[in-house]
Design a protein that fits this description.
With about 180 residues, the protein is mainly α. Helices cover about 80% and strands about 0% of the residues. α2 crosses α6 (about 140-175) and α5 crosses α6.
């Protein structure tokens, strides 16, 4: 990675962490997942995954909910899926000639919202299973407790954030980075 991409990765990681602390009072509604997704879209799979892992490396070690090594590791690894998905979406849309969000139509916004919902489901599935193992709860009970009250809030908020916030965030970052060039050179 060149110095511009390293700086962008650091800034987006800091933004991700900062928004998590800013939204502490609203449980399970966070902009981190969207920021990691947009990082992957704009910077590529490695940088997007790095923003996700580094965000949880810091936030998870200074987590107001407490620290648990297995949960910390699972959230670090699971958060990378958002960055990887953003990069893969960019590649797929570039092949279709719609990589610039200014060219997106309503169907793409709906798809991105559903993608946010699906990625959140996978993220919550992994982290709830790890929570069940570490807490001594049955996996089924951990999944039910994790999905019903908390997972629904997480999935619905991410669906809205992804569908409504992806295009403006991507446009803003791409304009700062100099268009659709993801290499930032």
């Amino acid at each position: 990675m060149n110095s511009k991409k390293i700086a962008a990765t650091a800034v987006l990681t800091a933004l991700s962490i900062g928004t998590n602390y800013a939204l502490l009072s609203i449980f399970n509604v966070k902009l981190m997942d969207l920021i990691v997704f947009v990082s992957g879209y704009c910077l590529g799979p490695f940088a997007g995954a790095l923003v996700g892992a580094m965000s949880w490396a810091v936030y998870g070690s200074l987590n107001p909910m407490g620290f648990s090594l297995p949960i910390w590791l699972s959230t670090m690894v699971s958060e990378t899926i958002y960055g990887l998905a953003g990069a893969f979406l960019h590649t797929a849309l570039r092949k279709e000639g719609a990589a610039n969000p200014k060219q997106w139509h309503r169907g793409i916004f709906v798809f991105v919202g559903f993608l946010g919902f699906f990625l959140t489901f996978i993220y919550d599935l992994i982290t709830n299973i790890v929570f069940g193992f570490t807490s001594g709860w049955s996996i089924l009970y951990a999944l039910i407790w994790g999905f019903v009250p908390m997972g629904l809030v997480h999935a619905i908020s991410n669906t809205l954030f992804f569908s409504l916030g992806s295009a403006p965030a991507i446009n803003a970052l791409l304009s700062v980075f100099g268009g659709e060039k993801r290499d930032l050179s």
